[in-house]
Design goal:
It holds the Pfam family MatE. Its main location: membrane. GO terms for molecular function: antiporter activity; xenobiotic transmembrane transporter activity. It is found in: Cell membrane. The protein has a domain of about 110 residues. About 90% of the residues lie in helices and about 0% in strands. The protein has 7 helices and no strands. It is globular.
Length: about 190
């Protein structure tokens, strides 16, 4: 039964109305992006209301480095989906498994590398960017927490890329929704 349930989430994007397929695949992606933006919105709202101007300025000073990290993670993991979707579409199950395995290995290596490099360089990069001294410590503290979460971000994005590559854009949406709700509850 569980196997049948899993199969029902996989969508053959070559069968059916292209417009309907694209819309049914894209809507969960768009909603996922909305939930992802809720992270920043709620964090900014809570920090501004509860912690004051310097903390809010530190959050703003950190935004570029946060965007750079998440953009790099998303770029890497979306690259995996190209190969995986090709193997899936061609029905090459062995090659598909190999591509997923390689994606997981590369993700693990990237998680270690990005976390280590990020943590080592954050202070220097904030200084290089000209972040004012009065907020640099707060920005560094915030970024250390964000960059400590790189492995989790890579895990989610790798799993989401694999699922989307086989036509399942709803499961990543569910995960992002739960994650966003947890973030909001923990922020408040």
């Amino acid at each position: 039964m569980a196997k049948e349930e899993k199969k029902s989430r996989i969508v053959d994007m070559t069968q059916g109305s292209p417009g309907r397929l694209i819309l049914s695949f894209a809507l969960p992606l768009m909603l996922g992006n909305v939930f992802q933006q809720l992270y920043t919105f709620v964090d900014t709202l809570v920090v501004g209301q509860a912690l004051g101007v310097n903390a809010l300025a530190a959050l703003g000073a950190s935004e570029w480095l946060t965007f750079l990290m998440f953009g790099s993670v998303q770029g890497l993991t979306q690259g995996f989906s190209v190969i995986i979707s090709q193997k899936f579409g061609a029905g090459q199950e062995g090659e598909l498994r190999r591509a997923v395995f390689q994606a997981v290995l590369l993700s693990a290596a990237a998680a270690i590398l990005l976390t280590a490099l990020g943590q080592a360089a954050l202070s220097a990069v904030l200084a290089w960017m000209g972040t004012p001294e009065e907020i640099r410590g707060l920005a560094l503290l915030y970024l250390r927490f964000i960059y400590a979460g790189i492995p989790a971000a890579i895990l989610y994005n790798t799993a989401a890329a694999v699922l989307r590559a086989v036509g399942d854009s709803r499961t990543p949406l569910r995960a992002m929704t739960v994650s966003s709700v947890c973030n909001i509850v923990l922020d408040l």
